[in-house]
Amino acid sequence: MSKLWGGRFTKATNELVEKETASIGFDYKLAEEDIQGSIAHVRMLAKSGIIDAEEADTIESGLHKVYDKFIQGKLAFSDANEDIHMNIEHALIEEIGPVGGKLHTGRSRNDQVATDMHLYLKKHTESLIVLMNDVQTAIYELAKQHTDTILPGYTHLQRAQPVSFAHHMLAYFWMFQRDKERLQDSLKRISWSPLGAGALAGTTFPIDREFTAEELGFNFVYPNSMDAVSDRDFILEFMSAASISMTHISRLSEEMVIWMSQEFQFIELDDSFCTGSSIMPQKKNPDVPELLRARTGRVNGNLVGLLTVLKGLPLAYNKDMQEDKEGMFDTVHTLTTSLQFLAPMIASMKVNTARMKEAVDTDFSNATDIADYLVEKDIPFRDAHEVIGKIVLHCIQHDQFLLDLTLADYQDFHPAFEADIFEKLKPASVLAARKSTGGTAPDAVIRQLNQAKTFID
Ligand code: ARG
Fold first, then answer.
1. Which of 8, 105, 116, 259 could cysteine-pair with 266, CB 3.0–4.6 Å?
2. What is the CB < 6 Å shell around ligand 1?
3. What is the mean pLDDT of the chain?
4. Argininosuccinate lyase C-terminal domain location, by residue (predicted)?
5. Which residue minimizes the CA distance to atom 11 of ligand 1?
6. Are residues 305 and 430 in the same domain?
7. How confident is the model at residue 282 (pLDDT cuts 50, 70, 90)?
8. Is residue 130 part of a domain?
9. Do 37 and 118 belong to one domain?
Protein backbone atom coordinates (compact mmCIF):
# COMPACT_ATOMS: atom_id res chain seq x y z
CA MET A 1 0.00 0.00 0.00
CA SER A 2 1.41 3.39 -0.94
CA LYS A 3 1.96 5.85 1.90
CA LEU A 4 0.65 9.40 1.98
CA TRP A 5 4.26 10.41 2.56
CA GLY A 6 5.75 7.76 0.26
CA GLY A 7 7.29 10.10 -2.35
CA ARG A 8 10.71 10.33 -0.74
CA PHE A 9 11.10 6.62 -0.02
CA THR A 10 12.49 3.77 -2.11
CA LYS A 11 11.95 0.92 0.34
CA ALA A 12 8.92 -0.43 2.14
CA THR A 13 8.70 0.06 5.91
CA ASN A 14 9.87 -2.82 8.08
CA GLU A 15 6.78 -4.74 9.20
CA LEU A 16 7.40 -4.48 12.92
CA VAL A 17 8.21 -0.79 12.56
CA GLU A 18 4.97 -0.24 10.70
CA LYS A 19 2.99 -2.05 13.37
CA GLU A 20 4.70 -0.47 16.37
CA THR A 21 4.96 3.11 15.12
CA ALA A 22 1.32 3.17 14.07
CA SER A 23 -1.00 4.82 16.58
CA ILE A 24 -4.27 3.96 14.87
CA GLY A 25 -4.77 1.08 17.33
CA PHE A 26 -5.57 3.68 20.00
CA ASP A 27 -5.92 7.11 18.40
CA TYR A 28 -9.04 6.01 16.50
CA LYS A 29 -10.67 7.39 19.64
CA LEU A 30 -9.93 10.85 18.23
CA ALA A 31 -11.93 10.24 15.03
CA GLU A 32 -14.76 12.59 15.92
CA GLU A 33 -12.41 15.38 17.00
CA ASP A 34 -10.20 14.85 13.97
CA ILE A 35 -13.14 15.30 11.62
CA GLN A 36 -14.43 18.27 13.60
CA GLY A 37 -10.99 19.92 13.31
CA SER A 38 -10.84 19.18 9.58
CA ILE A 39 -14.25 20.71 8.97
CA ALA A 40 -13.19 23.93 10.72
CA HIS A 41 -9.96 23.92 8.73
CA VAL A 42 -11.60 23.40 5.35
CA ARG A 43 -14.18 26.12 6.00
CA MET A 44 -11.32 28.45 6.83
CA LEU A 45 -9.44 27.49 3.65
CA ALA A 46 -12.48 28.48 1.58
CA LYS A 47 -13.21 31.63 3.55
CA SER A 48 -9.63 32.78 3.14
CA GLY A 49 -9.71 32.03 -0.61
CA ILE A 50 -7.04 29.32 -0.31
CA ILE A 51 -9.26 26.73 -1.99
CA ASP A 52 -12.52 27.43 -3.78
CA ALA A 53 -15.88 27.20 -2.06
CA GLU A 54 -17.16 24.32 -4.16
CA GLU A 55 -14.13 22.18 -3.37
CA ALA A 56 -14.53 22.99 0.29
CA ASP A 57 -18.18 21.88 0.19
CA THR A 58 -17.19 18.61 -1.46
CA ILE A 59 -14.55 18.04 1.19
CA GLU A 60 -16.88 18.91 4.04
CA SER A 61 -19.63 16.58 2.86
CA GLY A 62 -17.00 13.90 2.23
CA LEU A 63 -15.87 14.29 5.84
CA HIS A 64 -19.45 13.83 7.01
CA LYS A 65 -19.68 10.62 5.01
CA VAL A 66 -16.44 9.37 6.50
CA TYR A 67 -17.79 10.18 9.95
CA ASP A 68 -21.03 8.27 9.28
CA LYS A 69 -18.99 5.27 8.16
CA PHE A 70 -16.92 5.52 11.30
CA ILE A 71 -20.02 5.61 13.50
CA GLN A 72 -21.45 2.59 11.72
CA GLY A 73 -18.19 0.75 12.23
CA LYS A 74 -17.66 0.60 8.48
CA LEU A 75 -14.44 2.58 8.31
CA ALA A 76 -11.51 0.23 7.74
CA PHE A 77 -8.38 1.44 9.50
CA SER A 78 -4.90 0.24 8.62
CA ASP A 79 -1.48 0.40 10.24
CA ALA A 80 -0.08 1.38 6.85
CA ASN A 81 -1.95 4.67 7.24
CA GLU A 82 -0.33 5.05 10.66
CA ASP A 83 -2.71 7.19 12.60
CA ILE A 84 -6.23 8.55 12.71
CA HIS A 85 -5.26 11.64 10.72
CA MET A 86 -3.92 9.76 7.70
CA ASN A 87 -6.56 7.05 7.91
CA ILE A 88 -9.28 9.65 7.70
CA GLU A 89 -7.56 11.59 4.94
CA HIS A 90 -7.13 8.35 3.05
CA ALA A 91 -10.81 7.47 3.50
CA LEU A 92 -11.77 10.97 2.38
CA ILE A 93 -9.78 10.67 -0.83
CA GLU A 94 -11.36 7.29 -1.48
CA GLU A 95 -14.76 8.87 -0.92
CA ILE A 96 -14.45 12.04 -3.03
CA GLY A 97 -11.33 11.57 -5.15
CA PRO A 98 -8.16 13.66 -5.47
CA VAL A 99 -9.82 16.90 -4.36
CA GLY A 100 -9.70 15.37 -0.87
CA GLY A 101 -5.96 15.89 -1.07
CA LYS A 102 -6.53 19.65 -0.74
CA LEU A 103 -7.69 19.32 2.86
CA HIS A 104 -4.18 19.16 4.24
CA THR A 105 -3.22 22.54 2.70
CA GLY A 106 -1.65 24.83 5.27
CA ARG A 107 -1.65 22.37 8.13
CA SER A 108 0.43 19.49 9.45
CA ARG A 109 -0.36 16.43 11.50
CA ASN A 110 1.52 18.20 14.28
CA ASP A 111 -1.01 20.98 14.74
CA GLN A 112 -3.77 18.57 13.78
CA VAL A 113 -3.04 16.05 16.54
CA ALA A 114 -2.63 18.81 19.12
CA THR A 115 -6.01 20.21 18.05
CA ASP A 116 -7.63 16.80 18.37
CA MET A 117 -6.23 16.31 21.86
CA HIS A 118 -7.43 19.73 22.98
CA LEU A 119 -10.90 19.01 21.62
CA TYR A 120 -11.02 15.55 23.19
CA LEU A 121 -9.93 16.72 26.59
CA LYS A 122 -12.25 19.73 26.50
CA LYS A 123 -15.24 17.46 25.88
CA HIS A 124 -14.26 15.00 28.61
CA THR A 125 -13.29 17.64 31.13
CA GLU A 126 -16.71 19.19 30.72
CA SER A 127 -18.43 15.88 31.38
CA LEU A 128 -16.15 15.07 34.32
CA ILE A 129 -17.18 18.35 35.92
CA VAL A 130 -20.80 17.21 35.68
CA LEU A 131 -19.94 13.82 37.19
CA MET A 132 -18.11 15.48 40.09
CA ASN A 133 -21.16 17.59 40.66
CA ASP A 134 -23.26 14.39 40.77
CA VAL A 135 -21.01 12.92 43.44
CA GLN A 136 -21.26 16.14 45.43
CA THR A 137 -25.05 16.01 45.13
CA ALA A 138 -25.11 12.42 46.41
CA ILE A 139 -22.93 13.42 49.36
CA TYR A 140 -25.06 16.48 50.06
CA GLU A 141 -28.31 14.48 50.04
CA LEU A 142 -26.88 11.85 52.36
CA ALA A 143 -25.37 14.42 54.71
CA LYS A 144 -28.70 16.25 54.99
CA GLN A 145 -30.19 13.18 56.68
CA HIS A 146 -27.37 12.74 59.17
CA THR A 147 -26.69 16.00 60.98
CA ASP A 148 -27.68 14.23 64.23
CA THR A 149 -26.03 10.89 63.52
CA ILE A 150 -23.03 10.66 65.81
CA LEU A 151 -19.98 8.49 65.26
CA PRO A 152 -16.44 8.64 66.56
CA GLY A 153 -14.16 11.00 64.67
CA TYR A 154 -10.64 9.62 64.34
CA THR A 155 -7.09 10.84 64.30
CA HIS A 156 -4.35 8.22 63.87
CA LEU A 157 -7.36 5.90 63.36
CA GLN A 158 -7.84 6.19 67.13
CA ARG A 159 -11.12 7.55 68.44
CA ALA A 160 -10.64 11.25 69.00
CA GLN A 161 -13.84 13.31 69.29
CA PRO A 162 -17.38 12.53 68.20
CA VAL A 163 -18.52 14.02 64.91
CA SER A 164 -21.72 13.82 62.94
CA PHE A 165 -21.87 11.54 59.94
CA ALA A 166 -23.02 14.55 57.91
CA HIS A 167 -19.88 16.40 58.90
CA HIS A 168 -17.65 13.47 58.02
CA MET A 169 -19.21 13.04 54.57
CA LEU A 170 -19.19 16.77 53.85
CA ALA A 171 -15.41 16.77 54.22
CA TYR A 172 -15.44 14.84 50.92
CA PHE A 173 -17.91 17.28 49.41
CA TRP A 174 -15.28 20.02 49.67
CA MET A 175 -12.56 17.80 48.25
CA PHE A 176 -14.70 17.24 45.16
CA GLN A 177 -15.43 20.95 45.03
CA ARG A 178 -11.71 21.67 44.73
CA ASP A 179 -11.36 18.88 42.15
CA LYS A 180 -14.17 20.42 40.14
CA GLU A 181 -12.61 23.87 40.35
CA ARG A 182 -9.24 22.50 39.24
CA LEU A 183 -10.88 21.08 36.12
CA GLN A 184 -12.85 24.26 35.53
CA ASP A 185 -9.66 26.26 35.75
CA SER A 186 -7.79 23.92 33.42
CA LEU A 187 -10.47 24.49 30.77
CA LYS A 188 -9.01 27.96 30.26
CA ARG A 189 -5.82 26.44 28.89
CA ILE A 190 -7.43 23.41 27.25
CA SER A 191 -9.25 26.00 25.18
CA TRP A 192 -6.12 27.35 23.45
CA SER A 193 -6.11 26.58 19.73
CA PRO A 194 -2.98 25.08 18.15
CA LEU A 195 -4.60 24.77 14.71
CA GLY A 196 -2.71 26.67 12.04
CA ALA A 197 0.68 26.31 13.71
CA GLY A 198 1.64 23.98 10.86
CA ALA A 199 4.51 21.57 11.36
CA LEU A 200 6.25 24.00 13.72
CA ALA A 201 6.86 27.35 12.04
CA GLY A 202 3.49 28.52 10.77
CA THR A 203 2.46 28.46 7.12
CA THR A 204 2.91 30.45 3.93
CA PHE A 205 -0.86 30.45 3.28
CA PRO A 206 -3.03 33.37 4.41
CA ILE A 207 -4.85 31.30 7.04
CA ASP A 208 -7.15 32.65 9.71
CA ARG A 209 -6.41 31.03 13.06
CA GLU A 210 -8.94 33.11 14.94
CA PHE A 211 -11.68 31.79 12.66
CA THR A 212 -10.84 28.11 13.24
CA ALA A 213 -10.43 28.72 16.97
CA GLU A 214 -13.90 30.17 17.12
CA GLU A 215 -15.40 27.40 14.97
CA LEU A 216 -14.00 24.86 17.41
CA GLY A 217 -15.11 26.65 20.57
CA PHE A 218 -11.59 27.60 21.63
CA ASN A 219 -11.08 31.00 23.19
CA PHE A 220 -7.40 31.71 22.66
CA VAL A 221 -4.93 31.12 19.84
CA TYR A 222 -1.45 29.86 20.82
CA PRO A 223 0.72 32.91 20.07
CA ASN A 224 3.76 30.76 19.22
CA SER A 225 3.59 28.00 16.62
CA MET A 226 6.46 26.00 18.15
CA ASP A 227 4.83 26.05 21.56
CA ALA A 228 1.47 25.19 19.96
CA VAL A 229 2.68 21.89 18.47
CA SER A 230 4.84 20.79 21.37
CA ASP A 231 2.76 21.83 24.37
CA ARG A 232 1.24 19.00 26.34
CA ASP A 233 0.84 20.96 29.61
CA PHE A 234 -2.90 20.81 29.26
CA ILE A 235 -2.73 17.01 29.43
CA LEU A 236 -0.34 17.10 32.37
CA GLU A 237 -2.66 19.49 34.17
CA PHE A 238 -5.60 17.25 33.51
CA MET A 239 -3.69 14.19 34.70
CA SER A 240 -2.51 15.98 37.85
CA ALA A 241 -6.04 17.09 38.64
CA ALA A 242 -7.20 13.51 37.97
CA SER A 243 -4.54 12.09 40.31
CA ILE A 244 -5.61 14.43 43.09
CA SER A 245 -9.23 13.53 42.56
CA MET A 246 -8.45 9.79 42.51
CA THR A 247 -6.56 10.32 45.75
CA HIS A 248 -9.75 11.69 47.27
CA ILE A 249 -11.73 8.82 45.80
CA SER A 250 -9.26 6.33 47.25
CA ARG A 251 -9.56 7.85 50.72
CA LEU A 252 -13.33 7.72 50.66
CA SER A 253 -13.17 4.17 49.28
CA GLU A 254 -10.83 3.12 52.05
CA GLU A 255 -13.26 4.46 54.63
CA MET A 256 -16.08 2.53 53.00
CA VAL A 257 -14.05 -0.66 53.13
CA ILE A 258 -13.22 -0.11 56.79
CA TRP A 259 -16.75 0.93 57.71
CA MET A 260 -18.16 -2.16 56.06
CA SER A 261 -15.90 -4.54 58.00
CA GLN A 262 -17.34 -6.75 60.73
CA GLU A 263 -15.26 -4.78 63.21
CA PHE A 264 -16.93 -1.47 62.32
CA GLN A 265 -20.26 -2.26 60.66
CA PHE A 266 -20.94 1.46 60.26
CA ILE A 267 -22.32 1.09 56.75
CA GLU A 268 -23.46 -1.57 54.37
CA LEU A 269 -22.96 -1.06 50.68
CA ASP A 270 -25.81 -2.07 48.43
CA ASP A 271 -25.64 -5.62 47.05
CA SER A 272 -25.39 -4.15 43.57
CA PHE A 273 -21.94 -2.74 44.41
CA CYS A 274 -20.53 -5.85 46.10
CA THR A 275 -19.57 -9.35 45.10
CA GLY A 276 -19.40 -12.71 46.83
CA SER A 277 -16.68 -15.24 47.40
CA SER A 278 -16.40 -18.44 45.39
CA ILE A 279 -15.49 -20.40 48.49
CA MET A 280 -16.80 -18.56 51.57
CA PRO A 281 -20.58 -18.33 51.23
CA GLN A 282 -21.00 -15.79 54.05
CA LYS A 283 -18.96 -13.10 52.34
CA LYS A 284 -20.04 -9.82 50.83
CA ASN A 285 -17.00 -8.02 49.55
CA PRO A 286 -16.75 -4.27 48.88
CA ASP A 287 -15.04 -4.85 45.52
CA VAL A 288 -16.03 -1.54 43.99
CA PRO A 289 -14.39 0.73 46.59
CA GLU A 290 -11.41 -1.63 46.62
CA LEU A 291 -11.00 -1.20 42.87
CA LEU A 292 -11.45 2.55 43.06
CA ARG A 293 -8.76 2.67 45.74
CA ALA A 294 -6.43 0.64 43.53
CA ARG A 295 -7.09 2.53 40.31
CA THR A 296 -5.52 5.62 41.79
CA GLY A 297 -2.30 3.75 41.04
CA ARG A 298 -2.83 3.63 37.30
CA VAL A 299 -3.88 7.28 37.15
CA ASN A 300 -0.76 8.31 39.08
CA GLY A 301 1.28 6.05 36.79
CA ASN A 302 -0.14 7.74 33.70
CA LEU A 303 0.83 11.15 35.08
CA VAL A 304 4.39 10.11 35.88
CA GLY A 305 4.58 8.36 32.50
CA LEU A 306 3.78 11.51 30.56
CA LEU A 307 5.95 13.76 32.73
CA THR A 308 8.79 11.40 31.92
CA VAL A 309 8.03 11.32 28.19
CA LEU A 310 8.11 15.11 28.01
CA LYS A 311 11.11 15.69 30.21
CA GLY A 312 14.07 16.90 28.17
CA LEU A 313 12.28 16.88 24.80
CA PRO A 314 13.69 19.46 22.43
CA LEU A 315 11.32 21.67 20.46
CA ALA A 316 9.15 21.15 18.59
CA TYR A 317 7.12 18.01 17.80
CA ASN A 318 8.85 14.70 18.49
CA LYS A 319 7.44 11.24 17.88
CA ASP A 320 7.77 10.68 21.64
CA MET A 321 4.61 12.72 21.96
CA GLN A 322 2.54 9.99 20.41
CA GLU A 323 3.00 8.27 23.78
CA ASP A 324 0.76 10.91 25.37
CA LYS A 325 -2.41 9.24 24.24
CA GLU A 326 -2.99 5.87 25.84
CA GLY A 327 -2.35 7.20 29.34
CA MET A 328 -4.66 10.13 28.75
CA PHE A 329 -7.44 7.92 27.41
CA ASP A 330 -6.98 5.58 30.36
CA THR A 331 -7.09 8.42 32.88
CA VAL A 332 -10.24 9.85 31.29
CA HIS A 333 -11.86 6.42 31.38
CA THR A 334 -10.74 5.60 34.93
CA LEU A 335 -11.81 8.88 36.48
CA THR A 336 -15.08 8.88 34.55
CA THR A 337 -16.09 5.38 35.65
CA SER A 338 -14.88 5.94 39.22
CA LEU A 339 -17.13 8.97 39.58
CA GLN A 340 -19.97 7.10 37.89
CA PHE A 341 -19.66 4.33 40.48
CA LEU A 342 -19.36 6.65 43.40
CA ALA A 343 -22.56 8.69 43.17
CA PRO A 344 -25.02 5.74 43.20
CA MET A 345 -22.87 3.80 45.66
CA ILE A 346 -23.10 6.67 48.15
CA ALA A 347 -26.80 7.16 47.48
CA SER A 348 -27.64 3.49 48.03
CA MET A 349 -25.49 2.65 51.04
CA LYS A 350 -27.16 1.80 54.36
CA VAL A 351 -25.96 3.81 57.32
CA ASN A 352 -25.97 1.87 60.58
CA THR A 353 -26.72 4.73 62.98
CA ALA A 354 -27.27 2.39 65.95
CA ARG A 355 -23.86 0.88 65.53
CA MET A 356 -22.26 4.32 65.27
CA LYS A 357 -24.03 5.39 68.47
CA GLU A 358 -22.86 2.24 70.24
CA ALA A 359 -19.32 3.15 69.24
CA VAL A 360 -19.45 6.65 70.75
CA ASP A 361 -21.14 5.32 73.87
CA THR A 362 -18.22 3.02 74.51
CA ASP A 363 -15.22 5.24 74.05
CA PHE A 364 -13.41 8.19 75.57
CA SER A 365 -14.06 10.61 72.73
CA ASN A 366 -15.77 12.92 75.23
CA ALA A 367 -12.58 13.32 77.28
CA THR A 368 -11.66 16.69 75.76
CA ASP A 369 -15.00 17.98 76.96
CA ILE A 370 -14.29 17.29 80.62
CA ALA A 371 -11.08 19.21 80.21
CA ASP A 372 -13.03 22.10 78.64
CA TYR A 373 -15.48 21.84 81.57
CA LEU A 374 -12.72 22.43 84.10
CA VAL A 375 -11.30 25.25 81.98
CA GLU A 376 -14.68 26.96 82.16
CA LYS A 377 -14.29 26.71 85.95
CA ASP A 378 -11.07 28.68 85.55
CA ILE A 379 -8.65 25.79 85.86
CA PRO A 380 -5.69 26.13 83.46
CA PHE A 381 -6.02 23.78 80.47
CA ARG A 382 -2.71 22.02 81.20
CA ASP A 383 -3.81 21.14 84.75
CA ALA A 384 -7.22 20.05 83.52
CA HIS A 385 -5.57 17.83 80.87
CA GLU A 386 -3.54 16.12 83.61
CA VAL A 387 -6.61 15.51 85.79
CA ILE A 388 -8.61 14.04 82.91
CA GLY A 389 -5.69 11.82 81.91
CA LYS A 390 -5.85 10.32 85.41
CA ILE A 391 -9.62 9.90 85.22
CA VAL A 392 -9.32 8.07 81.88
CA LEU A 393 -6.61 5.82 83.27
CA HIS A 394 -8.79 5.07 86.29
CA CYS A 395 -11.69 4.15 83.97
CA ILE A 396 -9.51 1.90 81.85
CA GLN A 397 -8.23 0.14 84.96
CA HIS A 398 -11.77 -0.35 86.24
CA ASP A 399 -13.34 -1.22 82.90
CA GLN A 400 -15.57 1.85 82.90
CA PHE A 401 -16.37 4.81 80.65
CA LEU A 402 -16.59 8.45 81.64
CA LEU A 403 -20.36 8.39 82.03
CA ASP A 404 -20.15 5.38 84.39
CA LEU A 405 -18.41 7.33 87.17
CA THR A 406 -20.33 8.93 90.05
CA LEU A 407 -20.13 12.57 91.03
CA ALA A 408 -18.17 11.49 94.11
CA ASP A 409 -15.66 9.73 91.84
CA TYR A 410 -15.23 12.94 89.85
CA GLN A 411 -14.87 15.05 92.96
CA ASP A 412 -12.12 12.73 94.21
CA PHE A 413 -10.15 13.84 91.17
CA HIS A 414 -11.05 17.52 91.42
CA PRO A 415 -13.37 19.47 93.74
CA ALA A 416 -14.63 21.70 90.95
CA PHE A 417 -16.83 18.94 89.44
CA GLU A 418 -20.58 19.39 89.85
CA ALA A 419 -23.64 17.39 88.80
CA ASP A 420 -23.90 19.14 85.40
CA ILE A 421 -20.79 17.25 84.23
CA PHE A 422 -22.96 14.29 83.18
CA GLU A 423 -25.07 16.31 80.76
CA LYS A 424 -21.88 17.78 79.27
CA LEU A 425 -20.46 14.35 78.57
CA LYS A 426 -23.34 12.98 76.55
CA PRO A 427 -22.27 12.53 72.93
CA ALA A 428 -25.06 14.82 71.71
CA SER A 429 -23.88 17.61 74.03
CA VAL A 430 -20.28 17.05 73.02
CA LEU A 431 -21.33 17.44 69.39
CA ALA A 432 -23.60 20.43 69.96
CA ALA A 433 -20.83 22.27 71.79
CA ARG A 434 -18.69 22.50 68.65
CA LYS A 435 -20.59 25.34 67.05
CA SER A 436 -17.61 27.19 65.65
CA THR A 437 -17.68 27.81 61.89
CA GLY A 438 -16.77 24.56 60.15
CA GLY A 439 -17.42 22.62 63.38
CA THR A 440 -19.46 19.46 63.82
CA ALA A 441 -22.42 20.80 65.86
CA PRO A 442 -25.73 20.22 64.07
CA ASP A 443 -26.27 24.00 63.87
CA ALA A 444 -22.86 24.54 62.29
CA VAL A 445 -23.34 21.61 59.93
CA ILE A 446 -26.69 22.98 58.79
CA ARG A 447 -24.92 26.23 57.96
CA GLN A 448 -22.30 24.20 56.11
CA LEU A 449 -24.99 22.33 54.20
CA ASN A 450 -26.57 25.60 53.13
CA GLN A 451 -23.21 26.79 51.92
CA ALA A 452 -22.58 23.48 50.12
CA LYS A 453 -25.87 23.79 48.30
CA THR A 454 -24.68 26.94 46.55
CA PHE A 455 -21.76 24.98 45.04
CA ILE A 456 -23.80 22.33 43.23
CA ASP A 457 -26.21 22.59 40.34
N1 ARG B 1 0.28 10.00 15.36
C2 ARG B 1 1.05 11.16 15.64
C3 ARG B 1 0.97 11.48 17.12
O4 ARG B 1 0.08 11.02 17.72
C5 ARG B 1 0.52 12.34 14.88
C6 ARG B 1 1.53 13.38 14.59
C7 ARG B 1 2.55 12.82 13.68
N8 ARG B 1 3.42 13.79 13.17
C9 ARG B 1 4.54 13.43 12.51
N10 ARG B 1 5.26 14.40 12.08
N11 ARG B 1 4.92 12.20 12.40
O12 ARG B 1 1.81 12.14 17.68
1. 259
2. 23, 27, 83, 109-110, 113, 317, 321-322
3. 96
4. 364-431
5. 319
6. no
7. confident
8. yes
9. no
